[in-house]
């Protein structure tokens, strides 16, 4: 069947089940929902004894304690990013126990999680659900169909939605805790492996049957501040090192120095100014890419020159947003993950730098998530097509490069969602007739700013009207594609097998696209 | 039937239902539990529109919006204590709508809630559930059987347990919010009506079908810090004044100046020192009564003289505990309600002064509540009996004076629970053969310190052993009662009707006692 972005989707996928096809960005949003029950084993006590001792000697021991069995789902959070040791350490012990068919439901996995590839090959791990992935051996293994069942890529808001609705039931959550006491109170902002806020782990802590904190900084009771509290934690394990904080920042998390990208950023800021979006009370989110941060920088300059005070910055937070907060350009920051040390330090001390849960950030089925308040979203893309559909999951060769993250959440919520990109990347044109994989539907994407011109989604007649006398280089998207193709040629269609390696869910849980194993 | 504290309890009570009798302090603690589902109406959005506007013009209008109907349960929190305006304002509008048989599930009600008496008489309100009450017209009306169905008195930990287990389902929670933005992010520590932490409202915000924030300090988005977040809030109403913060502190929340009470406090501290409980890592909770705070003062002096650093102070927090925190006597404070302005201000700025949910505080069916970590608990009592059962609910004349609060939660958890009291109050002896109403079972109460001697629960052979050579005035509890009765005479049995006016639940939801209407 064809879904609402025109993608042919199987009605049922082996190892995933029946497919609910994507029916439009807003068709399943709203209405009544039920948060599922969650199961608790109370930590009992007798007078003078503080219940069962939560402190367990080793990861090996705690796996027995929580009763982990074949086929169960374990979860991890990704705030230590490419410096995370916990996922590998836990999965190694799970493998040692001879467990099989484990579902790894991590909020994100990185290059450092290469050891999972062996576990995939041995069918210790047969299912993976995630919202963030970076290129590397694991992404390659998934691309090449090594995983028994298709990986499921959820958005940052889709993941807590799936957890709260019961679609994603977590048996055991393992939470890397940079600071923790022996009774499970923890925070992410302090300790030798501080990673900042633990936002993506909040749903796991609330809804997993068993919750294990793994820390390399066991402090006397009570850990303070308490970010995840003891009443949600079954066990605590102290280990040598939970990660290498140097692995948190990688890739560009600073303003780009490339003159073309700086020009794209300046053009974007000028466009935002011309349409009147840079004003008191405005809110802004960008990714951590160099061009995105450059847009924040350019917007910041305009804000300062006009004495504008914004409402909030949000998302993954970089030092650049911390600087904007400290300069008084925003009233607050809402943070789901810290991208660098400046952000990590700020998260621990500035009450206006606030952790938010993934539900508060982007869950479409809550009483109002933050993306609904967002004015301006600067998006990245590996490809975009003439219908403004965005791909952040695959390269044009069909290999997995990333996952949905907050891309389709923020695009759906923000008053304006702008993709910033060079028109040509390597020898390829980012603009396509149809993107290889749709992550974010075109109906939610408003503008594409490139080094060869700006294309505005024809749905946004309000923007077209506002910019009709602008001197900005506004062109039709077809025209922009033609320019790109003059340089890069017309891409050959991608050849794939019929094996589905990734199911890409839209934030509402419908299937917006699938990734087939490339030939 | 007789329950485990020897009280004769009906097996079924009209307007309450089937009774689960109290079977012992620890018999229902532990084991597996399920947090209930909760119902959400998602706040939907279309591109460029931030979902349904949450800001509603008036309380009257919001009552229509949330679909309040006859027989439903509405909830309130009590952090504004005797200065709260919100409960009365909401209930007045509910009455105006002609609604009947409303269940008021407030965490606490005070003298200021006198207007509820009329609503009880008109059967607008037919059920009340609470954990805190102060003497006044409402307590009198309940004593006199005006309420159609028996009031249910829960402990501070029993209330969130009942909410999470589904025993107490809240249709609409109305949350007085001293600072709030138009999308429902709120905190209690700032604003003209600041009341400090909003802890008792957290369970309501998480589990009520509808959540309404009522504020007199609507701030630009985002309110910071966020104590209860927007994803849990359906509507926001701005009104002139949510309360009078001067009503928060009443009664003694300072060290007593009465020499006899000071002597009781000093004796208590000396006892704690002799048994070795005043040591590094210790934790302490007291009520807000003058003698209790004097105990904290005396303990603090010993801590200072021995350079002892404790772990935490907890419970309702007074300025005295803030002072102890600031002097470095504790690593942290866990706060469920602020009892004075010093505590309120500290709650907003000191990261070591931490809000905790009522579940984290005292819910016996979570993964480990704070009372399990508590070393020393100083309890108040209106009566205590020779089996060490404590009454905090009724006077000896059967009239309602208070509710369970955290009394039986902390007694069950703390390594030592000490009742401090004058032996004689007015012309009555607090020591009885059997207390009028059992709130806290004697098996969890360890010591009674009075101005005429100290009685130790014979179950605590460890304490008796430790104190066998002490010069402290340790006497048998029967002897102490005899002393009291020499002054006060033997009390006449209380005459009651057979109408149950209050069902007193133990923290596990079993019925530990009932209050009959006095004759």
Automatic annotation (TrEMBL), chains A, B:
Gene Ontology MF terms in the entry: citrate (pro-3S)-lyase activity; citrate CoA-transferase activity
Presence of the UniProt keyword Protease in the record: no
GO biological process, one term: acetyl-CoA metabolic process
EC number: 2.8.3.10, 4.1.3.6
Catalysed reaction equations from the record: citrate + acetyl-CoA = (3S)-citryl-CoA + acetate; citrate = oxaloacetate + acetate
Cellular localisation: Cytoplasm
Keywords: Cytoplasm, Lyase, Transferase
Keyword NAD annotated: no
InterPro entries, A to Z: Citrate_lyase_asu
GO cellular component annotations of the record: ATP-independent citrate lyase complex; cytoplasm
Record NCBIfam families: citF
Name of the protein this chain belongs to: Citrate lyase alpha chain
Species annotation: Clostridium thailandense
């Amino acid at each position: 069947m064809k879904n609402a972005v025109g993608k042919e989707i199987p009605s049922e996928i082996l190892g995933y089940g029946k497919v609910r096809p994507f029916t439009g960005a807003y068709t399943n949003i709203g209405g009544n929902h039920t948060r599922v029950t969650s199961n608790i084993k109370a930590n009992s006590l007798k007078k003078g004894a503080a219940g069962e001792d939560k402190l367990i000697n080793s990861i090996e021991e705690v796996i027995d304690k929580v009763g982990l069995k074949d086929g169960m789902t374990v979860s991890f959070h990704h705030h230590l990013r490419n410096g995370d040791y916990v996922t590998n350490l836990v999965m190694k012990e799970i493998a040692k126990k001879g467990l099989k068919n484990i579902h790894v439901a991590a909020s994100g996995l990185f290059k450092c999680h290469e050891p999972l590839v062996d576990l995939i090959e041995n069918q210790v791990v047969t299912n993976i659900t995630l919202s963030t992935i970076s290129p590397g051996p694991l992404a390659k293994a998934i691309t090449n169909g090594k995983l028994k069942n298709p990986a499921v890529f959820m958005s940052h808001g889709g993941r807590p939605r799936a957890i709260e609705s019961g679609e994603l039931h977590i048996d055991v959550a393992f939470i890397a805790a940079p600071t923790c006491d022996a009774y499970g109170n923890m925070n992410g902002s302090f300790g030798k492996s501080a990673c900042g806020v633990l936002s993506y782990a909040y749903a796991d802590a609330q809804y997993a049957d068993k919750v294990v904190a793994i820390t390399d900084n066991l402090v006397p009771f009570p850990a303070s501040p308490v970010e995840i509290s003891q009443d949600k934690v079954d066990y605590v394990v102290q280990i040598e090192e939970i990660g290498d904080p140097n692995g948190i920042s990688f890739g560009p998390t600073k303003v780009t120095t490339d003159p073309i990208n700086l020009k794209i950023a300046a053009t974007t800021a000028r466009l935002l100014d011309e349409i009147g979006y840079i004003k008191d009370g405005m809110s802004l989110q960008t990714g951590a890419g160099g061009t995105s941060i450059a847009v924040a920088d350019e917007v910041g300059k305009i804000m300062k020159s006009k004495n504008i005070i914004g409402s909030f910055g949000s998302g993954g937070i970089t030092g650049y947003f911390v600087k904007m907060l400290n300069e008084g350009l925003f009233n607050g920051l809402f943070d789901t993950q810290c991208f660098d040390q400046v952000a990590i330090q700020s998260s621990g001390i500035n009450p206006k730098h606030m952790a938010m849960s993934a539900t508060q950030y982007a869950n479409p089925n809550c009483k109002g998530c933050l993306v609904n308040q967002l004015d301006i979203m600067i998006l990245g893309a590996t490809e975009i097509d003439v219908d403004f559909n965005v791909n952040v999951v695959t390269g044009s060769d069909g290999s997995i490069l990333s996952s949905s993250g907050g891309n389709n959440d923020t695009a759906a919520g923000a008053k304006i969602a702008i993709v910033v990109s060079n028109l040509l990347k390597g020898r390829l044109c980012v603009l396509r007739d149809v993107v290889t994989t749709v992550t974010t539907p075109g109906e939610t994407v408003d503008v594409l700013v490139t080094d060869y011109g700006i294309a505005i989604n024809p749905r946004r007649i309000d923007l077209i009207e506002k910019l009709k006398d602008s001197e900005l280089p506004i062109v039709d998207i077809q025209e922009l594609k033609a320019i790109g193709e003059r340089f890069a040629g017309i891409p050959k269609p991608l050849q794939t097998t019929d094996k589905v390696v990734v199911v890409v869910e839209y934030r509402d849980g419908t299937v917006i696209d699938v990734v087939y194993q490339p030939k």
